[in-house]
Amino acid sequence: QKEVEQNSGPLSVPEGAIASLNCTYSDRGSQSFFWYRQYSGKSPELIMSIYSNGDKEDGRFTAQLNKASQYVSLLIRDSQPSDSATYLCAVGGNNRLAFGKGNQVVVIP
Amino acid sequence: ETGVTQTPRHLVMGMTNKKSLKCEQHLGHNAMYWYKQSAKKPLELMFVYSLEERVENNSVPSRFSPECPNSSHLFLHLHTLQPEDSALYLCASSFSGRAVGEQYFGPGTRLTVT
Cβ contact (<8 Å) for B45 and A96? Predict the structure, then answer.
């Protein structure tokens, strides 16, 4: 079983719509959860961190964590063309982060 | 991006060459990491240094040799690499603690082995 799993395939959303990204993880002892955005040819950029169950909002981004279901999600409201990127889910435990493969988001003007 | 810097940004080397990648962080962190990113694969953790001590070596071949002289600098020494080692090599830093904290990445070194 992979440590961190993200839905495969690009996600196309119209400009102004909500993009929803999901991530599941296998280690129940994980304590910290992050979303990174990576533009093509660039390095990952931290956009959200969440440590406890529930929702955390930062601007147009909302992270949701459910430790019982081992599930973390990212919502991007009012999607903009500049949100077109690959989004990486990362889960922290045992002094390291485990990353998913990433989800490509394409915002269509 | 200026919080963590990496040099060089691009590197082309033959299989018999020896080269080094350099990383420097200006964030006051005490943990540093090397990752490898290949196409269509998740980020792979290579090495972790916490308080200048290597705490993890993730089954990386010996042709990759890390060095952490202080909490702000991290090197990756490369020798006799293989073409499959071509990838983006990323350095990151964070505060060290029981819970893994936010890691901040440098811009990466795009390595091509010919």
Answer: yes
